[in-house]
Amino acid sequence: MSGLNLVVMRNAVPVRDAAADLPPEPLADFELIRQRLAGEYVSPADLKGPLARRLAGSNKAAAAALAAFEARAGAEILFTTGEDIAFRLLPLLNLTGWKGRLSSVIHASHSLKWRQAARLIGTGKVGCYFTVSTLQRDVLVQKAGLPASKVQFLYDSVDADYFDPALSEPVSGDGYVFACGLENRDYDTLSAAAAKVRCPIRVQASGYFPHAGATDADLPSNLEINRTRLSFADLRSRYAGARFVVVPLNAVPYAAGVNGLLEGMAMGKAVIVTESAGLSDYTGLDSLIKVPEADPARLAETIEALWRDPAACEEMGRANRAWILRHAHVEQYAATIADRMRAD
What we know:
Layout: E1 4-8, H1 29-37, E2 40-42, H2 50-56, H3 60-70, E3 75-80, H4 83-94, E4 101-105, H5 112-121, E5 126-131, H6 134-143, E6 151-153, E7 177-180, H7 187-194, E8 201-204, E9 223-226, H8 232-241, E10 244-247, H9 258-266, E11 270-274, E12 288-291, H10 296-307, H11 310-327, H12 330-343
Parallel strand pairs: 1-2, 1-3, 3-4, 4-5, 5-6, 7-8, 7-10, 8-9, 10-11, 11-12
Helix pairs in contact: 1-12, 2-3, 3-4, 4-5, 7-10
């Protein structure tokens, strides 16, 4: 390609010193996409016009959209990491003679606001919308009325070369049940289930805050909450030490919880996951155990049964990692997106 390719970010990507001794981290999907496109980043840090800065205010998605609009000249491809940027940028592009194509990952388009936006914006300047949930794909096609050719489902991804159990020290002892993550996690149900079982449960508390006035003293004695931010290496170690992983969720129509699910699977762990329509593309595997939403008794029963069956944990864990390597490695994800954008 002769033109410029831009990857649009809500936050500026830090410039790293190639000679610096930095700890290894998982490969970021957006960085792999940028590399495959031989592209450049654009973010709110690149905004030039004072009027644009005032218009964006503190809204990072709006600022990213305006920065990309300013940088559009000469660009053949724009890639945005979410609908919050794409659906703000596309109306601006539609007002111009820009000849390129914008593609974006669309995470949650089911709200009336975003469905209407997708319909009104049209697809004249859209290369492809990528969704990591077929439910979200169907929202765009069936409810927003977009052409099916403009919307592609693909599995979300994890860096399985980083989240690899072989990279962790051998674990001694009986382990624990591990849960982590922020978006739409139902830690109240997990806490209630913990009170009904005997095994230790550890939560990496991204966004976990008990009800107002509650303290850790109110939690079951076998439930340990860590609210300190972990490095990726420490997070990997937490996964490695677990006998299995639980992903307790509020059931929602998009793929909330998918990162924690895929990380646990990549680490070769059995996983108990709340049944959620947004994760239906991932949770039909025999190597995963689904439980109903907001059912502490069922969750406790499932945790207790799996804890007593370490052989089943190992068998399901092996199958889960094998599935990740076949379907959800970050290299595959980035290649699929970049190749489609080049073809469009």
